[in-house]
């Protein structure tokens, strides 16, 4: 079997082109992989930097919140101390007011009883005066008329 030089050249060229394309693709993959690795390293570095900033901010915010909580707790304790004494004083004042109202109510009920007795006495006097008027009218007789009846 005879193979011509052109066929051998074409086969050699084809193999060379295929090998060149495979090596070019390998070079491209290697280069892209190194670029991706560098990009990943830069992003990891930036993420670490941002994470450091956020952790610092978080620590500062935690410290601020803790200080604010301490101030608010102290303030609430002070207000609660004021109100606890005030509550006891208000309870004492209300108890004194209740006692005074009970005393006034007792006096009013006494006055009410006295007014009831007075009303009964006045009603009795009114009945007696009415009876006296009737008795006087009977004693005097019928009223005299200006014109005499014939």
From TrEMBL:
Gene3D superfamilies: 1.20.5.2280, 3.90.20.10. The keyword Transmembrane helix applies. The chain crosses the membrane at residues 6-29. Keywords: Membrane, Transmembrane, Transmembrane helix. This is Response regulator. It comes from Microbacterium sufflavum.
